[in-house]
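Long-time lurker. I teach an intro course on protein structure, and each term I like to show students one example going from raw sequence to a predicted 3D structure in token notation. This year I'd like something fresh instead of my usual example. Would anyone be willing to generate the tokens for the chain below so I can use it in lecture? Attribution to the forum is fine with me.
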Amino acid sequence: MVMRFKLNKMISRLNFKDNHIEVDQYQWDVRFNILDALLYDDYVLIILDYMSFPRGHAASNLEAYTLDGKKIWVADNPSTCSADAYVSFMQDQLSVNGEIVVWNFACFICTIRVRDGKLLSAEFTK
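-- Reply from a regular --
Happy to contribute to a lecture. Here you go:
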């Protein structure tokens, strides 16, 4: 169980374990176990366990939900290689301008626009 905090607004509580999410009075399940989760304004951003996705394909495993559990989007991936999957939010690089920075298993540092999951930039680091 991990707790993260909402940016820019009244502090909320986020807890997750396995595939279960709790945000304030709301709770719901997602389809796979959760690696990382973050509250950003009124979005619950979730990185699903990429090992649960079909092998040989990029894992589209970064999803956004409303606080009450309605899926809004699935983020773009920087490539189609089979090792392409999001791993964790880069806490030291979170911004307040509507974007998040996420580490990718294929060695990309990715900037994602929170409102629609669009991949804004992907810097290959290897």
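Some talking points for your students: Residues 14-124 form a domain with the Thrombin, subunit H fold (CATH 2.40.10.480). The radius of gyration is 14 Å.
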